Amino acid sequence: MTLEASTDGIFRVTSCHIAQLNVGVLQAPLDSPQLKDFVTNLDHVNAIADSAPGFVWRLRDADSNDATSLRPRGPDLLVNMSVWQSLESLREFVYRNGPHLEMLRRRREFFRSLDEAHQVLWWIPRGHIPDLDEAFSRLELLRRDGSGPGAFTFREPYSPPVALPTATSTARAL
Prior knowledge:
alpha+beta; 6 helices
């Protein structure tokens, strides 16, 4: 684990990546006219994500370039999960990428409104790839307890884990 001293004397973990899970309940079947634009844009938006600065990994099913056939929590629930180098790189892709942002703005055409959280972010060790069980446990944590260091949102982000300096590292920092 790499620790980096900040100006406040606290050592921050610099070997973390950010993971995200986003779930949506379909308004109609994937092959319906209502979801045609969503399905048509999947490959393009995924290609942009794959080449975006800070992108590390995204969930895909075994037979395609997306995760639309994975239905871990029911036939109408789609999942999207990815890992990024930083919260800033993920935010840049989600909110400043033209094609993704256009689909995000149109999400109510494609997905039902949910009464509970549908997206969760959490810090993971660099090199770790989360599975869907881990991701859904983070979503449940967010739904149960609200934003915290183990599960949070873009609106209420948390910094990567912090380790307090040890006596040896404090002496070296002085």
